[in-house]
Amino acid sequence: MSQTEIDRLTEEVTRRVGRLEGPAEAVAVLESIGITDDEAREMGRADVFQLGYEVFEHQAEDAGARRLRLEVESEFRQEELDSRRPTGLGTFLPRFFLKGFTFGAPMVIMIFAVLILLYSLWAYFYFDIPRGTAIAVGIVASYLVTAGFMQAIGRRGLMYLRQDMQVLSLKISMLMVLLGIVTVVVTGILFWLFLSLFPVIAPDEIPVAILYFVSLSLLWLGLSIVYMLQQEIWFSIAIAIGIGVVYYLREYLNTSIIVAHQAGIIAAAVIGLVIGIVLLSLREARLRRGRKQPLAGKLPRFSVIVYSVAPYFAYGLVYFGFLFTDRIMSWTGRADFRQYFFWFQSDYEVGLNWALISLLFSLGVLEFTVYRLGELVPFLSQTHSVLRTRQFTGEITSFYRRSVLAYVVAAVVGAIIAYFVVQALVPHIPLLDTLLNDTSVYVFIVASISYLLVVWSLLNNVFLFSFSRPAFALKAATAALIVNLVVGFLLSRIFVYWFAVFGLLAGAIVFWALSTYYTVKMLRNLDYYSYSAF
Predict the structure, then answer these.
(1) What is the DSSP letter of 256?
(2) Which residues, listed in sequence order, are joined to residue 124 by a DSSP beta bridge?
(3) SS3 of 62, please?
(4) Structure confidence by residue, pLDDT tens digits, 377-395
(5) Torsion sign (Cα): 221, 222, 226, 227
(6) What is the tens place of the pLDDT at every residue in 41-86?
(7) End-to-end CA distance of the chain
(8) What is the dihedral of CA 178, 180, 184, 190, to 10 degrees?
(9) What are the b/e assignments for 422-442, b being 16+ CB within 10 Å?
(10) How far apart are CA 496 and CA 445, in angstroms?
């Protein structure tokens, strides 16, 4: 075979794959373009393996072939870079600020439902304190029991999702949902025994607490796949449909509020679960059409799954424990009257929920940071070589600083708007006037500062999780939980129940300080953490 023929084959192989890793790859490419042993013998070679070896040698040694290889590799790198290039901010910002608002939409829907209808998916204005306390205890327990499973689905399911393994994402999600349901049933039995042995709530309300605990646990598990898919709008739709069911049963069939609540909650849970399964199935069907061969559909061993999700499971449990600790301290704190150990304090809850409304703006920044960082890391990894780690670290650090600045501005503006909007609505909505008092205002002010620091900590954790450092986030959340518990317990006993909010503030400061410390520590050695994370 002439040198010209070798040049031609080498050029064709190079334009297809760029640099050859070895003779075996050259053989594979030759066979893919139709060169067999018969064609190789016609070219004067024993078989295609000998021909592949000569093509590999020619690409490595011939000056012209090397130049072509460098040109092709440069084109491939540019194509890869273009495919990873982040979306323009003009398109990106509105989309994900809207996602931030839709993330907080369920809370807004619930609040307005109570103000307009006097009830929502699980709240009711005319519940007396013993019943309200029982339902509140059930709500908190439902979050604590399911938080770890939701975080595990969000982490492991999303990992498969980003690799376009929709089937595995669905399997791991359903596995966690089923494990969560079993845990809810077992915990519900133990919870019933505990409440029966220790009268921390009104004995007559124990079945109500268990009922809301089970149904709301199923709701969180049912919505977890939609949450993992980051389809917040469907989350809001499921909640809205559930409220619609409550409204229909309550207003048209005159059903008791508890029965209506249970029907609405279960309806929302089923709708959320079905939507999540359908969305995953549609994504898999769409991707399958473009695949030549199906991807692996078998999950790893259960022990491997447990090991991989354990830090995120623990983080979910600790984080939600932190969020509800101050509420529990206020329900059990020093008050003028408390018939049972847990005694719901409505003015404290109003202040906290008021502060949560102020997060709508800052949640937009948090959503933006999550998605933007997911685009920047692979793009910058391709842009900067291993010799330019300083530039890579500098750009990620700069993005972190801009995100923090945007978040703080949004959080402060959100708190100011929430305060004045609610105050302006008080004269026009009599229910607000009956709910708000001086305690609510004090709690709102302190809780607004606390939640500002909490969401800032979550923004830090976005960076920590993005580089596979859940241990850092878990350490910060654990310390915050302990401080919240100790400070809230002492102040709510020594002074008055609503001083529990200062436990939230103290814990938030610790959460913010430690998460910021770990984030800065990681950013200073980002080349190492980036390399070891993937």
Answers:
(1) -
(2) 119
(3) coil
(4) 666 566 655 555 677 677 7
(5) negative
(6) 777 777 888 887 888 888 888 777 788 777 777 666 666 655 555 5
(7) 46
(8) 110
(9) beeeeeeeeebeebbeebbbb
(10) 17
